[in-house]
Amino acid sequence: MNRFQWFLYHLVRLSLALVFVYAGAVKIQDVVAFAGHVAAYQILPYAMNYLVAATLPYVEFLTGVLLLLNVRVRPALVVIGGMTLIFMVALVSVLLRGLDIDCGCFDPAGGQDVSAGMALLRDVGLMVLVVLTWWLRSVLMAGSAKRET
Amino acid sequence: MTDDLKRIFLEACVLIAFGALFGLTMNHQLVLDAFAGRLVPQRPAVNAEQELQQDVPMALPMPVLLDEVQQLMTDGGLLVDARSPELFAAGHIEGAVSLPLADIDDVLPDFIARTDKDRVVVTYCSGFGCPDSFDLGMRLIEEGYSDVRVFEGGYPEWRDAGLAVAGEDQ
Prior knowledge:
The complex is a heterodimer.
Chain A: H1 3-29, H2 31-40, H3 46-69, H4 73-97, H5 116-148
Helix pairs in contact in A: 1-3, 1-5, 2-3, 3-4, 4-5
Chain B: H1 2-35, H2 45-54, E1 62-64, H3 66-74, E2 78-81, H4 85-90, E3 92-93, E4 97-98, H5 104-114, E5 121-124, H6 132-142, E6 148-151, H7 154-160, E7 165-166
Parallel strand pairs in B: 1-6, 2-4, 2-5, 5-6
Antiparallel strand pairs in B: 3-7
């Protein structure tokens, strides 16, 4: 791994970490409002919206913290990638049904509405970061293994 | 390599389980209330104070989902729109009556005269985040209505589901 790759790895890792720590933290502060956003997708039954709202932000926060600490990076990336993929499927379904809702991606009580289309584009960007971090992490680990032998 | 991937996915599962368990621990009452149908969003503080003073739980309007609202309407329930008369005129759920919360003291006597207190009443407003339907539901319970429900998705969810609406903008 060269110096640029090393720098890039830590940059994308920390960027992803901050996004997910922030996304989780603001939702944890207002779980009920987030449940309203989940319900607006009209995908889950009533009570399931609250179950998702009660658990998802904590998983987001935890994965963000692990990335921040550079610990269990690849398992955290798998979870983040999986969640982002699910968000993207949900957003596509919103677009196909023509629903005009706020994505609820970040601050559920905030006034800044983000459309499903914009949120989908953002999620594509996050997926690119996930794949890039995974690849750079693999390069980093391969380099370490080579030095040990 | 396969073993490495297996370990990563196993750790990912543990991570999800740990996060979800922590979330459930922090919000178990909320989730239990939601599954028991006891949950009402945006509960006004004033009612919580009244409840404490009276030392008896107040009856709360029961939240209902879109398909349940349709069934209740088929069974003779009454949909009540808690939004302003202007919003009602622009667009409302077909068959709903207007009972704007802002003018409740003026419009309630006429509503009470026309509506049997045993009839199922479903209140709605502008969807999640709008507390008026809940406040109106509480007021109707105080006035003696025995079965009051709140349709949290409100007009936006009904309209977006492609169900019948009425009003000037339609």
